[in-house]
Design brief:
Blueprint: E1 3-4, E2 10-13, E3 22-27, E4 30-34, E5 36-37, H1 52-59, E6 69-74, H2 80-83, H3 86-91, E7 95-101, H4 104-110, H5 117-138, E8 148-152, E9 171-172, E10 177-178, E11 180-181, E12 184-185, E13 190-196, E14 212-218, E15 224-229, H6 235-247, E16 256-260, H7 262-265, E17 271-273, E18 279-281, H8 283-291, E19 293-301, H9 319-326, E20 334-335, E21 348-353, E22 357-360, H10 363-367, H11 370-373, E23 382-383, H12 407-419
Length: about 425
């Protein structure tokens, strides 16, 4: 297993097949998990998917010296490929400080819609936290870490459910900015702008009620890295997000440096029925995505490897979508199921480097380079954190999707030339003192 360090600030996209598991490191001892897919297949000897919960237990900071601490767990929506293993996470040693949930699950329960067991476990936990928060408010106290909850979005039937009794401070709506995490003000390093779910879609398909966020990570020198998460949304609502943001003077809130491709690189982002009822390419959304992309923007497909051709019924990911994304960026789409190889995928990791932004961390850096493997002073060394299985270093040289040097890559090369490969990097590696 590879020994490595997570970025002091940055993001990790875990290889979990066609599903989402994203870990965002805010800095210090604050880590956020967006969705979870932890499958039993991860325990097999020849696994090509990550045992995410095990990795979290091994890598999360331990502020009290013993308990792995996850500041926030956010669920975009309750499909199994976004919450698989949540029950196991609850039963693990991890303390989840705060949970972000949308009202959708209450609606589904009241309408007796089918849900997977992990979605039910998530809902039960959120309901427990609602009760604990209401009790704390009645007692004139703040709910402690481990009981905190944030409800994101509005549902027309909210008055039928217990969460409606929460004070206003526990609700967040589209257009709001979140700068407080598990009771702590983090505006200096993190903010999340809420795009969706919209009230008008509250009774629509589950995918249409996905939580959508722009996350900004901020370095001490003011450098900002922008991440865009759009759940399993499709063209109509994504188009609405861009139009609403631009109309409201919030066009910067759809800017992105790293985009987690919606619905695992589904073509439904940029293909929809035209006036004649036939599917057609919607160039307008590609134009908007391109207009708001950073200079070195990267698209991530959290999915199994792409097939040689699209196969109806076995997609996403769609080759059509990959081709569309690659028409608006200078870099190939990075697929978690084939990075750097289909046989032995590794997590896709970006670190926020002062003066540069979100930089793809080369596999060779994770494995070999001193400036990345250097543990933070007093920090925990993170064993077997990043991978599924071991593979020889020689394969790193052909890592899929690593671009030629340009933009921040060229800048980083200049920095390395000036200071030497063995100098301490600008970006902190590791969580710092545990």
């Amino acid at each position: 297993m590879v020994e490595t360090e997570l970025p002091g600030q940055g993001v990790v996209f875990w290889p979990v097949g066609t599903g989402d598991s994203t870990t965002i490191v805010l800095g210090g001892d604050l880590v956020m998990q967006v969705d979870l897919r932890d499958m039993k297949a991860a325990d097999e000897d020849d696994a090509v998917v990550a045992a995410v919960i095990d990795r979290l237990e091994e890598t999360l900071p331990q502020p009290d010296g013993k308990t792995p601490y996850l500041a926030v767990f956010a669920l975009t929506h309750a499909d199994k490929d976004h919450c698989c293993g949540f029950g196991d996470l609850l039963e693990s040693s991890v303390l989840i400080g705060e949970i972000w949930a949308t009202p959708r699950l209450w609606r589904e329960l009241s309408e007796d819609r089918p849900m997977c067991e992990d979605a039910r476990r998530f809902q039960e936990e959120v309901e427990r936290r609602v009760d604990a928060t209401l009790q704390a408010v009645e007692d004139g106290k703040e709910p402690p870490s481990g009981d905190r909850v944030r409800i994101i979005g509005y549902d027309e039937d909210r008055e039928d459910h217990s969460y409606a009794q929460l004070p206003d401070e526990y609700f967040t709506f589209p257009g709001d900015v979140i700068t407080k995490v598990d009771g702590r003000d983090v505006e200096d390093r993190f903010e999340a702008f809420v795009h969706a779910p919209f009230k008008d879609n509250c009774a629509g398909d589950r995918n249409d009620t996905s939580l959508a966020l722009q996350v900004q990570l901020k370095a001490d020198d003011g450098t900002v890295g922008r991440l865009l998460f759009l759940g399993d949304l499709a063209y109509p609502i994504i188009k609405m997000i861009f139009e609403n943001s631009e109309a409201a003077g919030n066009s910067d809130r759809v800017d992105w440096d790293v985009l987690l491709s919606p619905h695992h690189c589904s073509k439904k982002v940029m293909y929809a029925d035209g006036e004649d009822g036939k599917e057609e390419l919607k160039q307008d959304i590609l134009d908007q995505l391109e207009a708001h992309a950073g200079a070195d923007a990267r698209v991530i497909s959290s999915s199994r490897p792409f097939r040689d051709k699209d196969d109806t019924g076995n997609d996403p990911p769609h080759l059509l979508a990959r081709t569309a994304y690659e028409s608006i960026t200078d870099y190939p789409v990075l697929c978690t199921g084939e990075y750097p190889s289909k046989e032995e995928p590794r997590p896709v990791v970006f670190a926020l480097e002062p003066g540069l932004g979100l930089e793809l961390v080369d596999i060779t850096d994770l494995e070999n380079k001193a400036q990345v493997l250097k543990a933070a002073s007093g920090g925990r060394r993170l064993l077997a954190a990043m991978g599924t299985t071991r593979f020889p270093a020689a394969t790193f040289t052909a890592a899929a999707g690593l671009p030629h040097q340009r933009g921040t890559d060229a800048a980083r090369a200049g920095v390395q030339q000036a200071r030497g490969d063995k100098a301490e990097p600008a970006v902190q590696i590791g969580f710092g003192a545990a």
